[in-house]
Every structure is written in structure tokens, then in C-alpha cells.
Design a protein that fits this description.
The complex is a heterodimer of chains A (401) and B (331). In chain A, a hairpin with a 2-residue loop joins strand 21 and strand 22. Helices cover 26% and strands 32% of the residues of chain A. Chain B is an all-alpha fold. Chain B has a domain of 219 residues: MetI-like fold (Orthogonal Bundle). Chain B starts with 6 loop residues before the first helix and ends in a 12-residue tail after the last helix. The chains are: A alpha+beta (401), B mainly alpha (331). Chains A and B meet through strand 6 and helix 2 of A and helix 9 and helix 10 of B.
Chain lengths: 401, 331
């Protein structure tokens, strides 16, 4: 077991493209860290560099305090789990799991007992003599995990290990991975493109974009206090609503009405080079049916009326889609997020996703009065993407003084 | 109507029933049987089309392959020398006894086996190396592959002549490599040169087949092996080779069959002198030059049988099952 330190680690390919740029990251001993981002953000390259499967162009990588930049993968004492599982097709489950131990020249008895033990933990005992071709996806995945844990390495590296499983199995395996990691207490770096996996699994989440780290922190912190537009849009499902907001007379003119701003934001917007146009971000759960809001709560937010587009009843709450007039928010980050989600069609006008109480009597087609919480909204600078409502790492909403 | 066990039988009875019209009391068992192998008009038409599409190829195969084979077997059972056509007579297996007790045949057989084993073994090693190089090259991939394949693109007889001239004393650039002798006039050196020419010529073919096999090895598997602690050699022997096994076997089979029928290089380089004849050379000498259709055909049939045995051994004993399937030899 060991800590992993990335010190200004970069990766440039021979053709000049930079896949990873100056990544600084300290992963504590026993920590479970998730690297997450859209495809091409450099997360897998970063993982491969930690594993030693890709050379590091510049910077330093230390595992357990030792510089390992020039060490071969087999000398780094790390185990890796691949998306494709990468099981050896010619070997049985037992031989697959024993392979790293055999290469380490352990005696046969130790190998057998270790394999049996790992098989028991992962409930693979009855499958030990089968070949990978005769296993289901979930079983193969467990064998791949088993092959990683038998050696008790310094760290586990996992490259989208659950992406090839169907949705139900993925949720199951998520808890298996999580429990296993807690049991073993082994430092783990886990790459995924799925923000739900990132939110549910990790002690800390690293969000990457274009080869650079955007924000590092515990999942809840990333959710509540996103540092920039990209993080805000990437984390959360359904994702945050983004609206165009124009700064006028100390107010924000938006499709939801004029939003008042507090002293601190006003001061920020007074500078000569301050942006005149902003992006307003509101999470779906910070909306509520105005009829269901008590007076005390009502004072902390504001209301607007909009036509209801679609109602999706989830049982515990309702996802209600509204169509609002006005300009759609536009920024490079948002386009990238939309492209990654494959959402290149969004109809005309701006669409608003809200999550209302199940008690709401909202119906499709009607105009509905909706309240939203001003203390929870975020304001972003469209050119830099920075979250303006963030103060000392905490988001205080638009009204903060 | 009885219940047929085979699906094909079921087809027949189903068709029969179709013709006679539906009986009032169809046994329930029968109905189930039919439900298992539903044979719609569509399916029947598809099957018919399948046979029709195969027919032309099958017909051509029968004409150009089956007929000559059967004819040579027929010839091999006769005493038939074109120089003495009057003595033509059915002699049963007498020709086989003659050939199989003849020392020339066994010398040629030994030479052929030697050439086959040595060339295929060397080609496998060199071809694997070449395949790895072609597979891994990042810069100038096209040029590397083209260059590697040139020997295979040259007509064998032309290449053989260039080797012959190269080893000819006085004019050849290789002739004086090992002292003053004429290498093509001694048995050992002649065989070595024949094998060299064979290897030079067909290694690219081996490499090409093996390269297709290399493409079957997933990159992740090699990455997994290196994080599991395997050295480059261990990755090659424990991961790559087992996964490539089917491709390697196919390459070996092709090359063994080809090598066993070696002819052109020997014909040009030594013309079979100094006991360097292969079985194909011997058959040619008897059949075409000696005009002895009986003995020559017997040799051809024996070569055909040997080749068939080699193929059988490869397919049945080594097994060409894909790795990972449990019906392989180990479980």
C-alpha cells in the first residue's frame, strides 16, 4: 500500500498533441480516487501513465515516495482492471488469477490458497475451472477483479471496469467494488466517464477536461460548489439548467424574470472588464411548485410562470420540463458537454428541467407558477467559465453579501 | 406417419404432410416436433438457393480435381508405360510394392521430409520475427511491408535461376564464399542452398499469415500481462502465442503442404542431381520424362496420400479450435 503523487505530469504525443497537461494530484494511502470526464479528456492516459503503460513526457510520478517514471509496469507493483477485462482466453479462471502470482515465482501452495481466498471473496469458487469464454459479463468482471486483488499490490488502477455491464449489474458491481476497496484499504484510482459512478464510488473525484484537472474534491463538494461551468454541467443528473443572464441596473435580466444580486456579486460586476453577460445555473431540485412553498421559504427565492412541456412522474418526485423564452446560454464548455452527451438536438428556445414534489398537481400543457431558490443559484462568466458565486471555495448564491 | 428423429427427416415428413393435406387428428407429439423445426416455404426456398449457389463451384471442383485424382488412382493400378503401350495391363497394387521397396523413392522421401521440416521450422521463427516487426512498425509501415514481401512476389523459377547463377563458380558472386568448390555439385551444400532459396522465398508468406494472427491479440491483454508482472518474453510465450495458436497452425499447415511438394527450386538448382530429388521431382521424372504412367501415377497418389495425412494430423491432432473454448484439448 502506498500513496501516489503526480507532480506536474504531462503527456505529449509525437505529433505534438498534449493529452495531459501539468496534472498535480496527491492520492493518499488507501484513498479511492475517481478520474472522470468526457471522452478524450486525458483520464485514461493519466491512468496508463500511473500504470507505466504510457511514458511520462514531463513531470514526476511517485508511488510510495519513490520516483517511478522510468520503471516498467511490472516493477511498480500495481494491478490494473480493464474495461475489456483482458482475461487470458487460453487459461481457466484459476490460471488467470494465479498468473501474476506464478510470474512472481510464489510456491504452488501459497498460490493456491491465495487464489481460493480471492475466489471466495468474489464468489468465484464454483467457476474456477471454467474458461473465460464460458462466463457471463459480470463473472468475467469479477475474475478481472480477482486477478487484481490476489497479489495485494500497492494500488489498484481501474479503467472503466463496469462500462461493459448492463445497467442493473453495473449498480450491483458498484457496491461490490466499493465494499472490496473498503475491506482491503488499497489505494485505488478509478477512471470512468459516468458521473453517477464517480459520485457514488469515490472518496474524492477528479474532474478532467482537455487534459487538465478542473476540480478535485469529495463528490458532494463538487456538486454544491462547482468551481466552473464545466464541473457544474458535468456533475448531476439531470444536469444543471443554464440560462442566459444580462447584467442591467444592478439586476440580472433572465428568462425567469429579473434576478436580484447581492453586494458581493455587484462589486465583482462593477469592474471595467467585468462581463456584461452571465450564465445563470440552477439545479433541477432547486425549483418547486409555487403552491407547495411556505411563506418562509418563499422569501428566499423568486417565482415565474411558464408553460409545462412534459411531466415525468418518478414516483418519489416529478421531473417537469418547461419551455422558457429568451436566449439560450452559450459557452464553449456547454457545447462540449452537449457533444459528449450526444445531445445535438434540443429544439427551439430554452428548455428547463425541474424536479418538483410528487404532490404537485402539475399537468402538461398548462401554465404553471414555479418557485426557485436564489440561495442555490450559480453565476458563471461565459468567457472564462468561472463560478462568480464561489467565495473561498463555497457557493453563496446570488444574494450573498 | 412415423416420427422422424433427424431434423432433415422432419422436413421430409412435414413436406409430405403439406402435400397430402392436413389430417384431422395430428398427434400432439408431432405438432411439438414440428414446432421445434419450423420449415416454412421461405426456409425451403433458401435451402434450395443455397444448393444452387454451391453447384457451379462444386461442379468445377469435380471436373478439375476429382476427375484427375480418380484417373491417376486408376492409372496407378496398371502397368502402363508409353514406350511399351502393348504391355498395358491391370496389375492391382504391384506398382505400389515396386515404389515402396525402391531405394530411390525412400531417398527422395527423406530429402523431401528434411527440406519440409527444416524450412518450415526456420520460416516459422523468421516469419514470426518479421511479422512482429511489420506489426509494430510505426514509421514507414507501407515501405517495410512492401520490402518484406518482395521475395514472395518474384516467380519461383526466376528466383531459383538467380540463386543458381549466384552459386555458379567463376561468375557467381556467392560461389567463392566457402573456398573454391562448386557448392551445387555436392549433396550437402546443394540441399542447404535449396533450403536457403525456399526459406528466402516463402518466409514473407509465413509472416503475412502470422501477422493476421498477431492482429487477433488484443492490446489490453498485453497491457494486463505487463501489469501482472510479465517480461516481454513472458508476454510473448504465455499470452501472444496461445492466443495466436489457431493462426500459427494454419500457417504451419499451409507451409508444410507447400514445402512437401517442393519442385521448382530443385528443378532449376540441381535438377535432382547428387540425390537431391524430392518426391515431386521423382514423380515428374517417371511420369513425364520416363513416360511410365503407371509408376509415375503411383508416386503422385502416394504424395497425395502423404499430404492428406499431414493435413489430417494438423486438423485432428493439434486441433484448430479457437483458444478459450472449453472443447479444446485441456479443460
Amino acid at each position: 500500500m502506498a500513496d501516489i503523487v503526480l507532480d506536474k505530469v504531462s503527456k505529449r504525443f509525437p505529433d505534438g498533441t498534449a493529452a495531459v497537461r501539468d496534472v498535480d494530484l496527491e492520492i493518499a494511502d488507501g484513498e479511492f480516487v475517481i478520474l472522470v470526464g468526457p471522452s478524450g479528456c486525458g483520464k485514461s492516459t493519466t491512468l496508463n501513465m500511473i500504470a507505466g503503460l504510457e511514458d511520462i513526457s514531463s513531470g514526476e510520478l511517485r508511488i510510495g515516495g519513490q520516483r517511478v517514471n522510468d520503471k516498467a509496469p511490472r516493477d511498480r507493483d500495481i494491478a490494473m482492471v480493464f474495461q475489456s477485462y483482458a482475461l487470458y482466453p487460453n487459461m481457466t479462471v484459476r490460471e488467470n488469477m494465479a498468473f501474476p502470482l506464478r510470474l512472481a515465482k510464489l510456491d504452488k501452495q501459497t498460490i493456491d490458497s491465495k487464489v481460493e481466498e480471492a475466489a471466495k471473496v468474489l464468489e468465484l469458487t464454483s467457476l474456477l475451472d471454467r474458461k473465460p469464454a464460458n462466463l457471463s459479463g459480470g463473472q468475467r468482471q469479477r475474475v478481472a477483479m480477482g486477478r487484481a486483488i490476489v497479489r495485494q499490490p500497492k494500488a489498484f488502477l481501474m479503467d472503466e471496469p463496469l462500462s461493459n455491464l448492463d445497467a442493473k449489474l453495473r449498480v450491483q458491481m458498484r457496491t461490490v467494488v466499493s465494499r472490496l476497496q473498503k475491506q482491503l484499504g488499497t489505494t485505488t484510482v478509478y477512471v470512468t466517464h459516468d458521473q453517477t459512478e464517480a459520485m457514488t464510488l469515490g472518496d474524492r473525484v477528479v474532474i478532467m477536461r482537455g487534459g487538465a484537472i478542473q476540480q478535485v474534491g469529495p463528490p458532494q463538494e463538487l456538486y454544491d460548489h462547482p468551481r466552473n461551468l464545466f464541473v457544474a454541467g458535468f456533475i448531476g443528473s439531470p444536469s444543471m439548467n443554464f440560462l442566459h443572464a444580462a447584467v442591467e441596473d444592478g439586476k440580472l435580466r433572465t428568462a425567469l424574470g429579473d434576478v436580484p444580486i447581492g453586494e458581493r456579486i455587484r462589486r465583482q460586476l462593477e469592474g471595467a472588464d467585468a462581463p456584461r453577460e452571465l450564465i445563470l445555473g440552477v439545479r433541477p431540485e432547486h425549483f418547486e411548485d409555487a403552491e407547495l412553498v411556505d411563506d418562509d421559504t418563499r422569501r428566499r427565492g423568486m417565482e415565474f410562470t411558464a408553460p409545462v412541456d412534459i411531466v415525468e412522474s418518478m414516483g418519489s418526485d416529478k421531473y417537469v420540463y418547461f419551455t422558457v423564452d429568451g436566449q439560450r446560454a452559450s459557452a464553449a464548455e456547454l457545447e462540449e458537454l452537449a457533444a459528449d452527451a450526444g445531445a445535438d438536438f434540443s429544439g427551439g428556445g430554452a428548455s428547463l428541467v425541474t424536479r418538483l414534489s410528487a404532490e404537485s398537481s402539475v399537468r402538461e400543457g398548462e401554465d404553471r407558477r414555479v418557485w426557485f431558490n436564489l440561495e442555490k443559484i450559480h453565476l458563471f462568466d461565459p468567457s472564462t467559465g468561472h463560478n462568480l458565486t464561489l467565495h473561498e471555495g463555497r457557493s453563496g448564491g446570488a444574494l450573498a453579501d | 406417419m412415423s416420427i422422424n428423429v433427424t431434423p432433415a427427416g422432419a422436413d421430409v415428413s412435414a413436406a409430405a404432410e403439406h402435400g397430402t393435406g392436413r389430417h384431422a387428428a395430428v398427434p400432439a407429439q408431432r405438432a411439438r416436433r414440428r414446432a421445434k423445426t419450423p420449415l416454412s416455404e421461405n426456409k425451403k426456398a433458401e435451402r434450395r438457393l443455397g444448393w444452387l449457389l454451391c453447384a457451379p463451384a462444386a461442379l468445377v471442383m469435380v471436373l478439375v480435381t476429382a476427375y484427375p485424382i480418380v484417373y491417376s488412382v486408376w492409372l496407378s493400378l496398371q502397368r502402363f508405360d508409353l514406350r511399351f503401350p502393348d504391355q498395358r495391363e491391370f496389375v492391382g497394387l504391384e506398382n505400389y510394392a515396386t515404389v515402396l521397396t525402391n531405394e530411390f523413392w525412400w531417398t527422395a522421401f527423406g530429402v523431401t521430409m528434411l527440406i519440409t521440416v527444416v524450412t518450415v521450422a526456420v520460416e516459422l521463427v523468421l516469419g514470426m520475427g518479421l511479422a512482429l516487426i511489420m506489426h509494430r512498425t510505426l514509421v514507414g509501415r507501407g515501405i517495410v511491408r512492401t520490402a518484406a514481401l518482395i521475395p514472395y512476389g518474384i516467380v519461383t523459377v526466376v528466383a531459383a535461376f538467380s540463386w543458381r547463377y549466384a552459386w555458379t563458380p567463376g561468375t557467381g558472386y556467392l560461389a567463392n564464399l566457402f573456398g573454391d568448390g562448386a557448392p551445387l555439385t555436392e549433396r550437402a551444400s546443394s540441399l542447404a542452398i535449396i533450403m536457403l532459396a525456399e526459406i528466402w522465398k516463402t518466409t514473407p508468406f509465413m509472416a503475412l499469415l502470422l501477422m493476421a494472427g498477431l492482429a487477433l491479440v488484443p492490446e489490453d491483454l498485453l497491457k494486463a500481462a505487463s501489469t501482472d508482472g510479465a517480461t516481454a518474453w513472458q508476454r510473448f510465450t504465455k499470452v501472444m502465442l496461445p492466443v495466436m495458436k489457431p493462426a500459427i497452425l494454419v500457417a504451419l499447415l499451409f507451409r508444410t503442404l507447400d514445402a512437401f511438394r517442393v519442385f521448382d527450386n530443385i528443378f532449376v538448382l540441381t535438377a535432382g542431381g547428387n540425390e537431391t530429388s524430392s518426391v515431386s521431382m521423382l514423380a515428374y521424372n517417371n511420369l513425364i520424362r520416363g513416360l511410365n504412367l503407371g509408376i509415375g501415377s503411383t508416386m503422385s497418389v502416394l504424395i497425395f496420400l502423404t499430404v492428406a495425412i499431414i493435413a489430417f494430423v494438423f486438423v485432428k491432432l493439434f486441433g484448430t479450435a479457437a483458444p478459450g473454448s472449453d472443447d479444446g484439448e485441456r479443460r
